[in-house]
Amino acid sequence: MANATGGAGGDAAAGTFAPGTPRLLRAINERTILEFLRRRGPASRAQVARETGLSKPTVSLALGGLAGAGLVREVGRSSGGKGPAALLYELDPEAGWVVGIDVGRLWVRAAIADLSGALVARATERARVRSAATLIGQIGRMAHALAAEAGIAWDQVTHATVGSPGVVDPRRGSVELAPNLPGWGRKGLVEAIHQELGTGVTFDNDVNLAALGEQTRGLGAGVSDFVFLWIGTGIGLGVVAGGALHRGAHGYAGEIAYLPLGFTDPHDPATRRHGPLEDAVAAPGIVEMARAIGLPPPLTPKKVFAAARRGDERAVRVVEQAAGRLATVIATVAPILDPELVILGGGIGANEDLLMNRIEEELRAISPFRPRLARSALGEDAVLHGAVSTALAAAQDLLFPRGRAPEQSGEAVQAV
Fold first, then answer.
1. pLDDT tens across 177-194, in order?
2. What three-state secondary structure class fits 201?
3. How far apart, in Å, are the Cα atoms of 209 and each of 168, 368, 369?
4. Residue 77's beta-bridge partner residues?
5. Which of 40, 64, 343, 375 has its CA 20 to 30 A from that of 381?
6. Are 125 and 108 in contact (CB under 8 A)?
7. CB-CB contact of 158 with 199 (8 Å)
């Protein structure tokens, strides 16, 4: 998310430095106060100064600028304390609106939120994945219908964030390696969705957004180093290191579907399309293990886990095998990233009652590194909350009428 780096305006890594102009410093202070009010709620000038570390004159100047821009508003006076009542300020939640969209192989989830991050309308539909064009049309229709439901004119929507499977390359503005969504990696996808929505659009990998959702609203809050392990139709890893999402040089960080861990042959062209780990551990792997052990068709991971809960011995063996493979994945990741916490999510990862103890037992047997494991606090909404959080960060940039802080490299892809 865009913020100041390298001091007041320097980029030490690039070998260039920019002076900390009054305009830039004022924008940084206003951003700090706006985010403070968004998280805390109404506060007086003295409270803002005390809790942000800014001087009272600086806070007064910044609040005046934010109020003039329509981003904060006065909401009465404090009561019950000693001395005169103090004027209270809060973020004006209707100063902007954002849309978050989670595009998956089975479902499309969308929500519209005000500038405070409160969801005011949401919808879930079966994904229409016959073609990229069909799915793009569904995304646009759902987003505009949500705005109408919330009583918001579409031109009031400041920004939208779309999360989907695949590698998002921030340098080329492309989405690649999304085999579960037909045509999703085609050239011009980003521009086509931007045109369909008719507003500023940010794209990101769905598991990255799930990690950001957990960081802002779930178990990752206050944890500087954690990973979000998504196991569902596919498998992926969202990596938060040092409090920031780690994307890697090309956006590949966390694409663990392509780890050649030996469960299936990584040289097999059929395996390489989805990745050997996805074919072994995600939904296709669960179904294949169940078929090999003799469970009757039709088979889905949901049916396998339900049978295990009923005590079906064959299904229990499938679950044990899947847990062992997931433990191997965590044992592979742990000494490389050293996460404090591993959050399990996705349709398969949500089966905490059957998987967690078995994973932990196997992890103790094969690795000296044992990070804390937990099931996602946000469940199926993790990606959606991450998308809304990312859209809010972009909206703050767009709503500021004055200079902005220099952006960090490696952000999500943003259409024109």
1. 777 787 777 777 888 888
2. strand
3. 12, 30, 26
4. 87
5. 40
6. yes
7. yes
